[in-house]
TrEMBL record:
This is Acyltransferase. Residues 1-10 have a biased composition (Low complexity). Residues 1-24 are annotated as: Disordered. GO terms for cellular component: membrane. It comes from Calcidiscus leptoporus.
Amino acid sequence: AGILSPLLDKAPPPRARALDPPVNPSPASLFEEWLAQMRRLFSPVFLSVDADGRVRDGLDGLDTSTTGPLLFVGNHQLFGFDGPILVEQLLRERGLLLRALVYPPLLAPESP
């Protein structure tokens, strides 16, 4: 008794053509990928203090109305991984471009 024919008759219809794969949400550059990895590794937290003295999450409390310079200090420890994270966060949240200051001997061929 042929069992294959009745099974094929009861089989569901073939599936429609698969949809296009979703867009790959990968970063646009190697730097963005590196930055995303550093954020996952270090989980940075940004806090600011508003004019009323309240601590706020993120950089919303940062007073950017002043015409003078703002000073940000990062605790570099080793390799300065906080630098690019700080630059990116200020640019993304407040539209501010941070200029880094570097201890000149660190740029010498033989660093201390």
